[in-house]
Predict the structure of Cytochrome b5.
Amino acid sequence: MVREISIEEVRKHRDSKSVWIIIHNDVYDVTNFLEEHPGGEDSLLGVAGQDGTQSFEDVGHSADARDLLKKYKIGTLPPGEIRNKVADPDNSCCLHTSK
Ligand code: HEM
C-alpha cells in the first residue's frame, strides 16, 4: 500500500532486517531485494534509512532498474518534506521520468 511516510520514519529502517530508501521523494522497502540487487547488498545498506537519489542516479541505472522500483515502493514523502526540484538543482528529481 502506498501511503505518506516521513523521513523520520524512514530513518528507523536502516539495518538488514528492514531497509527503506528514499529515491525521488518516494519510499522503497528493499529488504527483500538486498540479495538480488546486481549492485550488491552493501550499496543499498550504504543509503539505508536515507535519501539514495543521488547514489541511484550516479550509477546510471537502466530503464529496467527504474521499472523494478515500482515493485518495492511502499509510500511517498509528505508534501512538506518533498525536496524542491527548482530550488535544489542537485536533486535530479525529474530524471526518472524523462529518461
Ligand atoms: C530500489 C532501488 C534500486 C534498484 C531497483 C536497483 C536495481 C539495480 C539493477 C537492476 C541493476 C543492474 C544494472 C541496471 O539494470 O542498471 C543495478 C546495478 C547497480 N546498482 Fe542498483 N538498484 C537500486 C538502488 C541502488 C542504490 C541506492 C545504489 C547505490 C548506493 C545502487 C548501486 C548499484 C551499482 C553499483 C550497480 C552495479 C552497476 C554495475 O556493476 O554495472 N543501486 N541496480
